[in-house]
What does this fold into?
Amino acid sequence: MVSLAITACSARSERSAGSSPGRSQQEPALSGDGRLLAVITEKLGRPTVQLRDLASGRLLPLPQLNRHQPHSSPSLSWNGRFLALITQRGQRRFAVINDRLTGRLHHLPLPGHRVPIRLSLAPDGRQLALQVADRGQWRIELFDLSRVLEPDRAAADRQTTSRTESAP
It folds into this structure.
């Protein structure tokens, strides 16, 4: 049964995803609705996030992130309003969330000597799971973003509809 599911899947080539030939891409993240793809690619020798509209193949601008490089671990909310990722300034790494609708860049403060390694944003943008390194130990921390970000409406509406439909 698993092999049938795998063989039924089709792969899109690098060109069909709208990328430049010969450019290395890594750490893909799809929005929940499948419209947007975030990848890490190299720009002027630095890992940089790119956000692409898959229907048109067009790169979407992320001007708030230009000064915050290198980038790693992108994660998108349901409709791509929020893009979470790890950035670096000097030797310090930061977890940030780019609100593409308002243009705001939210920095997630980490107390102590915690260093962000990887992250995952909930589809509604209200919670973030963050892998951190703290004095040689790795652990996962969950952050409630409900006081910082409004919900990504498509995901919030979908969750409300699901709960309503399953209610007795």
Q: What stands out?
A: The CA atoms of residues 158 and 164 lie 10 Å apart. Residues 13-166 form a domain with the Neuraminidase fold (CATH 2.120.10.30). The chain has one domain: 13-166.
